[in-house]
Amino acid sequence: NEEFFQRKYVEVDIYKSETNKDTGEVKLSISKPMDFTNDFMKSFISHRTYMIENSCSALFTGNNETGKTYSALLILAKMIKYGYSGHYMRFKNYLNLLNSSYSNNEDKILLRQIRSVKLLVIDELGKEHGKAEYATTELEELIKTRQDNLSSTMLITNLDYTDFIATYGNHVKSAFNKNFKVLIFHPDAGFRKKTRISWPKVK
Fold first, then answer.
1. How do beta strands 180-185 and 26-30 pair?
2. Could you tell me the sign of the dihedral formed by the alpha carbons of 120, 124, 126, 132, in that order?
3. Cα–Cα distance between 125 and 91 in angstroms, integer?
4. What's the CA gap between 46 and 42, in Å, rounded?
5. Can you give the pTM of this predicted structure?
6. Dihedral through CA 43, CA 111, CA 164, CA 48, nearest 10?
7. What is the pLDDT of residues 29-85, one digit of tens each?
8. Which residues of the chain register pLDDT less than 70?
9. CA–CA gap between residue 123 and residue 68 (Å, rounded)
């Protein structure tokens, strides 16, 4: 039910943090990441109205060939079938479009349309070229704007969570609201090959 869903997916991250009292170092530990990812994906669809209205979003992290993009696109495809607007884009292409939108009106309109979809999937964060500060600023602005507009965003990166924060900074981390989850895909999980998801049927 919705009360269980809210408790599990809004107030609880998929990782637990333990702080060393002597050094202050924070250690992240995960319990059954593959099962949680499976549950998260199915619940996102089943509770889609709640998810969108509360800007529930996710960061998919892990190595190549672990099923990150596969998982995000499954959710995106189902959301589109349910009538929600959605779009998939690589981050470097998003930045290129953003740059060209300053001088090209058609690109400006296209960028506005992409930013306004209810579910936006941004892939390959960490592979873009150019100034890191610029990429960080635009990513932070994108996350905050979409949360303000009650839209969901899924970010995909090959960087692990620690490297992702090191690359994009604490400003991006602070932009993640309580409804932003971190899904970590482990190389040995074989999520894409092993998981067979029973999706709710589209009426």
1. unpaired
2. negative
3. 6
4. 6
5. 0.77
6. -10
7. 444 444 556 677 888 888 899 999 988 899 888 888 778 888 899 899 999 999 999
8. 1-21, 23-38, 177-178, 186-203
9. 9
- Using alpha carbons, select from 199, 200, 185 the residue that is nearest to residue 67: 185
- 21 CB contacts (<8 Å, ≥6 apart)? none
Q: What is the DSSP letter of 199?
A: P
Label each residue of 17-48 as H, E or C.
Answer: EEECCCCCCEEEEECCHHHHHHHHHHHHHHCH
pLDDT score of 37 = 65
Runs of H (alpha helix) within 102-160:
105-116, 132-148
Contact 75, 119 (CB under 8 A): yes
| Residue 130 neighbours by CB under 8 Å, 6+ apart | 95
Contact 61, 185 (CB under 8 A): yes
Q: Which of 131, 155, 132 is nearest to 143 (CA)?
A: 155
| Residues 75, 154: Cα–Cα separation, whole Å | 10
User: CA 178, CA 107: separation in Å to the nearest integer?
Assistant: 32
| Longest distance between any two alpha carbons in the chain, whole Å | 56
- Give CA separation, 178 vs 12, 28, 36, in Å: 9, 17, 17
What value, to the nearest 5°, has the Cα angle with vertex 57 and ends 52 and 60? 145
DSSP state of 200: P
Return d(Cα 119, Cα 103) in angstroms, integer.
27
